[in-house]
Amino acid sequence: MESCFRAALFFARNCTNFKHYSMYFLRIWFATIIVSPILLCLFLGITVPQKGLFTYFERLWPMMVMGAFFSIPTILLQSVIFVLLERAGFNQKLLKIILSVLAVTGVCISFFIIKISFVGYAGPIIYSTVMVFCIWYFRSDTKPAN
């Protein structure tokens, strides 16, 4: 545990624009944990018509909490890799492609770990799509004002 703390402290000290990048990833994270469960509830309500359109909205808050909890490792890994690769001189498009691959992989691993049976393949597809959209929608290349 102490080595993780030291690594995080080293990373925070050596990243000059850490606050700027953390805001970029917080936007992605918040948008994903809010929009994805809503879309998933609507999708399940449409595809399971005998239960009704808004039946799954009773599970919205638990889905948001679980999504927030299980997406933390993916977001942290994305932020570390993003900063390291940007400092190495990678261009923004390549960085966002790498982040997109990490997003899909992280979401699929999270859904594999929690094994929610009622969502099927719709859960990982919706969450991955929303996260990849947010990665490309939000700007990461703007430098903060000094």
List its salient traits.
5 helices; 0% strand; mainly alpha; 75% helix; 146 residues; single chain; elongated
Describe this structure in words.
The protein is mainly α. The chain has one domain. The protein has five helices and no strands. Helix 2 runs antiparallel to helix 5. It is elongated and about 55 Å long. The termini are far apart.
List the helices and strands and how they pair.
Elements: H1 2-14, H2 18-47, H3 60-87, H4 92-114, H5 122-137
Helix pairs in contact: 2-3, 2-5, 3-4, 4-5
Helix content range? over 70%
**What is the radius of gyration?**
17 Å
Order of helices and strands: HHHHH
Low-pLDDT sequence parts:
none
**Distance separating the two termini:** 34 Å
The largest sheet, given as strand count, sense and whether it forms a barrel, is: none
Number of domains: 1
Shape: elongated
Q: What is the overall pLDDT average? A: 80
Q: What share of residues are in beta strands?
A: under 5%
Structural class: mainly alpha
How many strands? 0
